[in-house]
Amino acid sequence: MESCNFNRLCYHNVLVTKLVEEKKDNSLYDFLSRPNDPAFNYRVDTFGVDNAKWTWDYDWEPYKKSIIVKDVLPLCPVCNSKMEFDGFYTSNSATCVKCRLEGKQYHFNLRQFDIDVSKEIIRRLNTGEWRARMK
Questions:
Q1: Can you spell out the DSSP letters for the chain?
Q2: pLDDT 10s digits, 1-38
């Protein structure tokens, strides 16, 4: 796994510099725990002209007081399951294992690249737009 720094973005784990409100530490190691920030609940949204649904997760970087957007994956338009990127055809397609097992259409061309979706997630987090999108 590639490490991130403030000067560049990692391909799948994108660093988000996010200032977290300072709170009084009750112990010497409180800073290691992830803050109780509602932004961590923002994990699914639509992107692009076709409003494709994507999902992701976060990691907390306590020493940098930052969150990392990770595991950015498209959701299947048929069954809403997480899809896997399919490098066999192109770098911009995905396969739904659930639909493949059920004999449905399972291979989908993506109109968005995961790195672009990651950057848009970061933009929405930094501007606060994510709050309106969760309603």
A1: ----BTTB--SSSEEE---------SSTTGGGSPP--GGGG--EEEETTTTEEEEEEEEEETTTTEEEEEEEEEBPTTT-PBPEE-TTT-TTEEE-HHHHHTTS--EEE-SS-HHHHHHHHHHHHHHTHHHHHT-
A2: 333 333 333 334 454 544 444 445 456 667 677 778 88
